[in-house]
Automatic annotation (TrEMBL):
Pfam families: Tail_completion_gp17. This is DUF3168 domain-containing protein. It comes from Vreelandella titanicae. The lineage of its organism: Bacteria, Pseudomonadati, Pseudomonadota, Gammaproteobacteria, Oceanospirillales. It comes from the Bacteria.
């Protein structure tokens, strides 16, 4: 499912400042980050999609739920990125905190959010 999540995040100069790599590419990846990706980065996936339609019309909109996982070597980086995501989606979506964790093997913090928003149906 293609969502508007990446596009909206990539337009935020604050998120670009926090997540851009040396090639000036924003480190936001669907489902899986490429091996060797430097921290911090975001991984996202669609959890569910509910389609809204009108009688005798095509589908008109989708309610999309996206899980967003922020990974960083410093806890403060995860919370800074989460704060910017909340600001970026403030007027566009419902943002909920899910959980936070620390991976003792990789020595990486994880901060998880869920974002719910409505987007136009795209049949292309």
């Amino acid at each position: 499912m293609i969502t508007d999540f990446y596009y909206i995040c990539s337009q935020s100069s604050e998120l670009q400042a926090l997540l851009n790599d040396s090639n000036n590419d924003i480190k936001i990846f669907p489902i899986l980050a490429p091996q060797g990706t430097g921290y911090p980065y975001i991984k996202y996936q669609t959890i569910s999609v509910t389609t809204y339609s009108l009688l005798a019309h095509d589908d008109v909109a989708d309610q999309v739920r996206v899980q967003v996982d922020i990974f960083a070597k410093k806890y403060s980086d995860t919370t800074s990125i989460a704060k910017e995501i909340r600001k970026t989606f403030k007027d566009l979506a419902k943002v909920e905190f899910r959980f936070e964790d620390f991976d003792n093997t990789a020595l990486v913090y994880r901060y998880s959010l869920e974002i719910q928003f409505i987007q136009d149906v795209d049949f292309t």
